[in-house]
Amino acid sequence: MSNSSRLIINCGASRVTAAKVNAQSGNVKLEQLATHYLESDAITDENWIEAVGIALKELARSSNLQGNATFILPGNQVLTKTIKIPHVETEKRAQIIAFEAQQSIPYPLHEVVWDSQVIGDDGIEIEVLFIACKIDTIETFCAGVRAAGLTAEGITAASILEYNLLALADPGASSDDLVINIGARTTNLLFRNADGFFVRNLSLGGQVLSQSIADSLGKTLEQAEAIKLQFYNRENETLEDSNGAKALTDSADAFMRRISQEVTRSIVNYRRQKNAPAPGRILLSGRGSQVRGLAEFLHNSQKVPVERLDPLEHVTLEAGVTEEPETLRVLLPQIVGEACRPLVENGAGVNLLPEAVQNAMRFAKQKPLLMAAAACLALAPWPAWKVFNDKIAASDSRIAELRSVAAPYLERKADIEQNLKNAKAVKDSIERVEGLVQSKSNWIQFFAEMQESMTSAEDVWLDDLKVIREAKDGTASYEVALKGQMLVRETANGSAGLDRDVLTRRIRSLISSLKTSAFIVDSKPPRIRWSMLNDGLNVLPFEIKLVVDPTKPL
User: How many C-beta atoms surround the C-beta of residue 360 within 10 A?
Assistant: First the structure.
């Protein structure tokens, strides 16, 4: 593998595919490809990770894979969530994303490894795709990678990589497209238009069809999988007249109807959230999309052209790649999507590799330089040793001379030390006075910013403001506790029913605005007293605690 080549391994729910690729000048060169199919009992998460570890060892042995590699996780192993945050500076974005994500995901944030991808920015709000994986899953997965003799330099999610394929083929997004990738356990829907993309992951894959066939024919899942592949092969008609053909056809029809219903529901949701037209074209991808008649079924139900996604459009095959083009079109979409990410402006991709592992990898890359520097440092004293030894005698005489000069100053040492103490006390007094002056100007600026935030929020006023100062382990902490009320016009106008989510978002929007202050670094969850609304009052009391930057105290 050349220095510019990459090893990318797609760890899908039913197979592991490894490829050595070289992406340059708008083209991806496929140098090597190897695939290992997982056993049918790898359907559970625990069995899947174990099966992937075995597959990685086999691929590393049979295809001589080694070194750093980028790994792709399937949709069923990651959590994908679209969230919106206020338009803020890049350095504050991660903190706000973490806060918003914690309200939307079923796990505590410290139990997952996460990354994000900006998918839309209108100058007011930023739409972010939040992708996470449980830490236990990532650590077990990385252990399997190490056992295979490989090193993970990145772990990304399959859900967004086909965007890079579309962006490479059509940078200007001349048409609105929907990519439907049907995998073994999940189906990923990726909408792409000129403004960005939108992703939805469905818990519906090819194994649902296999299980339906198994139930209909009284077969095991492994036997049903083999029958499915044989029956739905476009070039194989041997089972058309068999007794089980109707059961197989019925299962396929039911599977296609479910896919079409989910696609329709997702398009409606996409149009409502993005205020965009329906996709003008559907592109099919994934092994599960090979079900005979699926393209025609979706064309009739969605009334748009349906085509196969072709990942080979910008791919050059080396002599060592012998697989058929149809097989490559099933195996390569995510791998080529990851390979061409550097070729695409604002390419889609995340890294779910834990920060500690990334730091260890960066240190490992610096080891040769550090070892060379240590060797040079060890050798450096030898040339100077002789010169140093020659100057020892001259230094001794010079020391004696300096001691005689320093004698009068040593006699005044006590006076000098006392003067230093007095000077330090004066300095501390001056710093305290300067701190008071600075704190006063800080309060003036903070009140101005807070007034601006409340004016923007509308119908909000404060009843109380308190500064809480504490010292823990010698470190000072500051909080500003605000108590206020919000006028609820829906109640005042006599509207029936209240949307608590809307009111909560208004208060969180106020908090986000307050956090843009240079003096605020964080906030604690607000306390909202809904009881007053329940009693028929028109105001909603709330309490907010803002964490003050200790370097800019109020």
Answer: 12
